[in-house]
Design brief:
- The chain is 61% helix and 3% strand.
- It has four helices and two strands; from the N terminus they run αββααα.
- It has helices at residues 21-62, 70-82, 97-104, 117-137, and strands at residues 64-65, 68-69.
- A two-stranded antiparallel ribbon has the order 1-2.
- Strand 1 and strand 2 (68-69) form a beta hairpin.
- The longest helix is centred in the first third of the chain and has 42 residues, at 21-62.
- The protein is elongated and about 90 Å long.
């Protein structure tokens, strides 16, 4: 027997023309809030109060941030502002020039490339010689 496998299960159904149910609710809510504000506050003050509501409802219905609905961004912003935050500050101590020079060249930081002590000492001398040559050029 053959069964039909549903496809596009992550796409919402278009119920009201080109709008999904969520989009229709957002648009209808914004339009209703605009009509109510115009009726109560007059044409000028009603439109001034309704403009942000209409813009928010249009953003909720149609705007996507990184292919995610705008409501997810609002939810994340709300959680960020309401939850407590932990700030950690660590004071960095100032170093003198002598300490910096000691850190720049430390014979203990030379990697042990071989088991032969003679090769290690030769490598250390070559490195120190090249550093002295660089300092003399400057």
């Amino acid at each position: 027997m053959r069964f039909q496998i549903p496809q596009f299960i992550d796409v919402e159904d278009k119920i009201f023309g080109p709008l999904t149910l969520k989009q229709f609710i957002y648009v209808a809510g914004g339009a209703a809030a605009a009509v109510v504000s115009v009726m109560f506050f007059g044409i000028f003050f009603g439109l001034v109060l309704a403009a942000p509501i209409v813009i928010l409802s249009a953003a909720l219905a149609f705007y996507k941030v990184n292919n995610r609905p705008f409501i997810h961004m609002l939810e994340s912003a709300f959680k960020y502002t309401t939850k407590s935050k932990l700030y950690i500050w660590q004071k960095k101590e100032t170093e003198s020039e002598e300490e910096r020079e000691e850190k720049e060249y430390n014979p203990l930081s030379v990697p042990n490339l071989s088991n032969s002590k003679l090769k290690d000492m030769n490598w250390e001398l070559d490195v120190k010689k090249k550093e002295d040559e660089k300092l003399n050029k400057v």
